[in-house]
Design a protein that fits this description.
This is Flavodoxin-like domain-containing protein. GO terms for molecular function: FMN binding; NAD(P)H dehydrogenase (quinone) activity. Belongs to the WrbA family. The protein is an alpha/beta fold. The two termini are about 25 Å apart. The radius of gyration is 17 Å and the shape is globular. Helix 2 links the parallel strand 1 and strand 2. It has a three-stranded parallel beta sheet, with helices on one face. The chain has a single domain, classed as Flavodoxin domain (Rossmann fold, 3-Layer(aba) Sandwich).
Length: about 190
Amino acid sequence: MGKGDILDIPAEAVNSVNTQSTLKLFIVFYSMYGHVEKLAKRMKKGAEGVQGVEAVLFRVPETLPADVLELMKVPPKDPEIPEIVVAELATADGFLFGFPTSTGTQGGGQETTAWTAITQLAHHGMLFVPIGCTFGAGMFNMDSIRGGSPYGAGVYAGDGTREPSETELALAEHQGKYMAGVVKRLLSQA
């Protein structure tokens, strides 16, 4: 094809290394009721806590028709967060993705979501960077119900009325900072 891949991104854009002093970390997410968006905003805060990193929030385009969203009582999207455009992906130094899961299982589908995403990342030569147990004691706090695992930040939304807890938000912030540090270290070796 003469291009980077089927997304029609020029190969030179895909293979280039950022020589700017500021690294760009894109946080790309989908959030129907705002739970994943709240995690994404805290990831941004964590990532920007790393010197020389700019984190940018993007949402993926909505696929459901407006009448369905209205019936589901989906709140309006934050107009300050733009939709991602495929061509913009090549300008990022790293990504954090926010995938909603809704399976009604104990793990909430987090593991399956991560495993499924990894295959897609591999096809594009990307690395999956889990946080492991780097969150420390907060990872093991069982005083209350919380989302998140060594795969990354998460939130139990229940019927949608439960908001992310401070522990869940702090884990998201930690993940943003952790990922920004990994991207910075990898690119400093390039």
